[in-house]
Each structure stands twice: as structure tokens, then as C-alpha cells.
Design a protein that fits this description.
Strand content: 15-25%
Number of helices: 14
CATH architecture of the largest domain: 3-Layer(aba) Sandwich
Number of strands: 21
Radius of gyration: 21 Å
Strand order of the largest sheet: 16-12-14-13-19-20-18-21
Structural class: alpha+beta
CATH topology of the largest domain: Vanillyl-alcohol Oxidase, Chain A, domain 3
Bound molecules: flavin-adenine dinucleotide
Length: 451
């Protein structure tokens, strides 16, 4: 199979590395790519939407799964679908929506593969109610470094299953997945939005809306300070039933409007996003609001950023870091306040920030969320950012929290171990399944997960 040398990074465009990429056209090709590559290292890659280096393997092999993307079976009675892991969530929606089904968990973009969603055990705006993606996976098949294919699920080879959901591709290549979907009556969401004046109010409203709504999320103005620190908007949503729809939508409840797609054609110069321009943007969003209308289609509610391709180029060639941390409820308010104050003192800028509430953990050994609040911030990469992030990492550990591996670019092995106590079990299982240590990514090496 032909190898292509490519300069790869995650979505943050941060510190790319040269990798050999293969794109298998069949399961057999995938298997021989892995076996022929031994004893050199490989890692699976989906659509490269993790922000950091989890799907990058500098100097080694990267397996592009996006051609392994077939629909295997939809069971409309049981509300399940089985697909190959390289299928994007966007394509999956196209298949299931006409069957009155929707994704059980939706991230902020449709350009994520099912394999990537499982490997990062992704979450959406409904974690407080429905948990993460892995909680809706009935079964998956995994290609091990030995070439053996193993089927696993919560009650079958469960150890392997819980190591794989959230396992960042480090147990094997996910081949196909059976997902339990959510029955819906339309492709629309009934939305309510509330402006908040400070962090306490934002957290209070997130708590309230988490009790009453399936979806709850906030945008915050990360550059506000003093009494207004943490001000923003809270958005709550429910799937719309037919009585919520206008007469024209009732006629075609699953129809999605097509919208023009824009694209950012080149990397912006690094100076464009600074404290001043980020402040101006945040002020404008705060004044205008984040959603218009009471009933919006799923694309507008879940995936507004997908309308602009390559939007990550606005951060310039140095790229950006998306930092997402979870804090247990009891330490959240003070921890988030301190984090934002550290951001202000550092002189760094955050273009975008949001807070969500999180519910029960999925059981994945390296899964991110458990009950608490999670805050995510997009930060253009500038001198001094590493030191801010190191301070935040210590702070997260002190508060009993952790950072999200699908967004991580800079976490040290020591901090990782203090955030994810089950790292040792994963290392032991990896030793068993992969004694030659062939599965490896830049992230797994940085986090000391390669033994
Ligand atoms: C705009 C945007 C919004 C986002 N919003 C959210 C959000 O709301 N919630 C959330 O949780 N995440 C969110 N993310 C992150 C994203 O959902 C995850 O990083 C996801 O893992 C990306 O999937 P991918 O297919 O692009 O995988 P990649 O980025 O290519 O890979 C991610 C990890 O999955 C592994 N992997 C991929 N495919 C396979 C496979 N077939 N077998 C084994 N391992 C595999 C890789 O080895 C790697 O470790 C967002 C990302 C972006 C860019």
C-alpha cells in the first residue's frame, strides 16, 4: 500500500510532525498495513478534529480510517445502527435522521468519525442527562496489533471495552461500532437563551437548565473581569415535537436547509487575534446573543462552526490550544474564577470560552467527564502560554479535576497520572495486547503511556 509523507497536526495546528500516512481501502488492507509495519509504530486517525497530537505519530505510521465508512445495518425498532468506524457523524446523521433517529451525543462539529468519537469518548451538551458517546455503544470490533479482531462491549470482553472508550486509539484500531440512537420527531431544537451577569449566575442557570432540559450549555466572555467575571449566555434546548413546528416545517420535519459554506483561505497573521480583538469579539457576542429564534435546526444548534471550513486558520501558523478542564461541583465556582483570573494576569487572550455541566462517568478508564462543571477555552498560541497552562494544570489537580485528552497538547506525564488514576491499568493491558509497543502517538509518548 502506498505511503504518503504528510505534515500532520490536530485541529489546533499546533506543532505538526512528519508522518507516513496509509489509507486502506478494505479491512484486509488495514490488517496488512498494521502487520507489515511491525515493529515500527502506528496510530489510527479519523478526521483529525482532536485539537492536539493524539492522532499524530511523528516519524511513524498513521492509519487514515476515513475510507472505512460503510453503513452496515439500521434497526429502526431497537433504535440501533452499526457502521464502520471511519464514517463521519455528518454522514451517520444523513442515514439515521430519515428513520426518526438522531445521535445520542453530539459534539460541536459533524466532522468527527465514529472511531474518533469512541476513542475520545466524546460528550455533548447533554452529558448531565445522557452521559458520553461510549455510554451508547453496544458493541465494537477492534483490530489488535497481533492482527486478531475482538468484539467487545459492556458485558463482553468488558475490560478491553472500557480501556477502548476514551482510550485515544491506544488499544487497537476500531473497525465497526453499534450505537444506540435517540428517537426524535424532527430535525429541530426548541431553544431558550438567558443572558447572565456573572459567573455565579451562569453556574446557577446551568444547574437549573440541566434539571429541566436535555441540552444545556453556556458561552462566557472569558475577558470580562471584576463583578462581571464569567458573564455570558446560557442556552437550553429540547428536541422539537411536531406541535413546536411551524406549518411549513410540519410538512417536512426532517428537512435540513442547505446553507452556503464559507472557507478561510489562508492562515491569518499571528497578531490578528490579540487581547483587544478578542475583547471586542466577546463584547459583541455578549450584547447580541448566541442564537436567534425559538426553534432552530440541528445544524444551527449543534454545528454552527461547520459553516466555515478551515476556521482554525484564523489563529495563524503557530496554531492554538483548546484547554478543557473538569472540576467537581464542590470546587467548580472558585476554581473557574481563579482560572479566569490567572488568564487575565497572564496577558493571554481567549477567543472563545464555554462552560457545561457534566453527569455520571461512562466507566472508560481514560474518559474525561464525571459530575461537575467543565470549562473550555480557545487560546491563540503565544509566548508564555505554556507557562499559563502549566499553572492551570497544577490548579486542576489541586481542585480534584482533569483535562480532556482530545484537546490536550501540553500536559506532562506526571500531571496526567495525577488526573487519570487508571493509567496504570491501561499500561498493563497495553503490555499484554501490544508487547512490542507498536501502537504509539505523539500524545502517548508525551504522557508516558508507552511503557
Ligand atoms: C469544532 C470542534 C468542536 C468539538 N466539540 C467537541 C465537543 O463538544 N465534545 C467533545 O467531546 N469533543 C469535541 N471536539 C473534539 C472531537 O470530538 C474529538 O477530538 C474526536 O475524537 C475527533 O474525532 P476524529 O475522527 O477527528 O479523530 P482524530 O482527531 O483523527 O483522532 C482522535 C483520537 O481518536 C483515535 N482514533 C480515531 N479513529 C480511530 C479508530 N478507527 N480506531 C481507533 N482509534 C481511533 C486517534 O488515534 C486519536 O487518539 C470538537 C472538535 C472540534 C474541532
Amino acid at each position: 500500500m502506498k505511503k504518503q509523507r504528510r505534515h500532520l497536526s490536530g485541529w489546533g495546528n499546533f506543532r505538526p510532525g512528519w508522518c507516513d500516512v496509509v489509507t486502506p481501502q478494505s479491512r484486509d488492507e488495514l490488517r496488512s498495513a498494521i502487520l507489515q509495519n511491525t515493529p515500527s509504530t502506528w496510530i489510527s486517525r479519523g478526521l483529525g478534529r482532536s485539537y492536539g497530537d493524539s492522532a499524530v505519530n511523528s516519524g511513524g505510521l498513521v492509519i487514515d480510517h476515513t475510507t472505512q465508512s460503510a453503513l452496515i445495518h439500521i434497526d429502526s425498532e431497537r433504535h440501533t445502527v452499526r457502521v464502520q468506524a471511519g464514517m463521519s457523524l455528518g454522514t451517520l446523521i444523513d442515514h439515521i435522521l430519515p428513520n426518526s433517529l438522531f445521535l445520542p451525543v453530539s459534539p460541536g462539529t459533524k466532522f468527527v468519525t465514529v472511531g474518533g468519537a469512541v476513542a475520545a469518548d466524546i460528550h455533548g451538551k447533554n452529558h448531565h442527562r445522557d452521559g458520553s458517546f461510549g455510554s451508547h455503544v453496544e458493541e465494537l470490533s477492534l483490530l489488535l496489533p497481533s492482527g486478531e479482531i475482538v468484539t467487545c462491549g459492556p458485558s463482553r470482553n468488558s475490560k478491553l471495552y472500557y480501556a477502548t472508550i476514551g482510550g485515544m486509539g491506544l488499544t487497537g484500531a476500531i473497525l465497526d461500532v453499534t450505537i444506540r440512537c435517540l428517537p426524535v420527531e424532527s430535525a429541530h431544537i426548541r431553544v431558550e437563551s438567558y443572558r447572565t451577569g456573572c459567573l455565579e449566575e451562569t453556574l446557577e442557570l446551568l444547574n437549573q437548565t440541566a434539571d429541566t432540559h436535555r441540552y444545556s450549555v453556556s458561552w462566557i466572555d472569558a475577558l470580562s473581569s471584576g463583578k462581571e467575571l464569567g458573564r455570558g449566555w446560557v442556552l437550553a434546548g429540547e428536541h422539537a415535537g411536531s406541535r413546536d413546528l411551524s406549518t411549513s416545517l410540519q410538512a417536512e420535519p426532517f428537512h435540513l436547509p442547505t446553507r452556503p459554506i464559507k472557507s478561510v483561505p489562508f492562515h491569518f497573521p499571528g497578531w490578528v487575534l490579540n487581547r483587544w480583538s478578542c475583547g471586542l469579539f466577546n463584547e459583541r457576542v455578549y450584547r447580541r446573543g448566541i442564537v436567534s429564534g425559538n426553534v432552530v435546526d440541528i445544524d444551527s444548534f449543534f454545528y454552527p462552526l461547520d459553516r466555515v471550513h478551515h476556521w482554525n486558520r484564523i489563529y495563524g501558523r503557530a496554531g492554538f490550544i483548546q484547554y478543557q478542564a473538569l472540576f467537581p461541583f464542590e470546587s467548580s465556582a472558585i476554581a473557574i474564577k481563579n482560572m479566569l483570573e490567572l488568564l487575565h494576569d497572564s496577558g493571554q487572550a481567549a477567543f472563545f470560552a464555554g462552560i457545561k455541566s457534566a453527569g455520571p462517568a461512562s466507566g472508560g478508564w481514560l474518559s474525561f467527564l464525571s459530575p461537575g462543571f467543565t470549562i473550555g477555552l480557545d487560546l491563540p498560541y503565544r509566548k508564555g502560554l505554556d507557562s499559563l497552562i502549566e499553572k492551570w494544570d497544577h490548579f486542576v489537580i489541586e481542585a480534584g479535576g482533569r483535562v480532556y485528552l482530545a484537546k490536550d497538547s501540553l500536559l506532562s506525564a506526571d500531571s496526567f497520572r495525577r488526573m487519570y488514576p487508571r493509567w496504570q491499568e491501561l499500561m498493563e493491558l497495553r503490555q499484554e495486547l501490544d508487547p512490542n509497543g507498536v501502537i504509539s502517538s505523539n500524545q502517548s509518548r508525551r504522557l508516558g503511556l508507552d511503557g
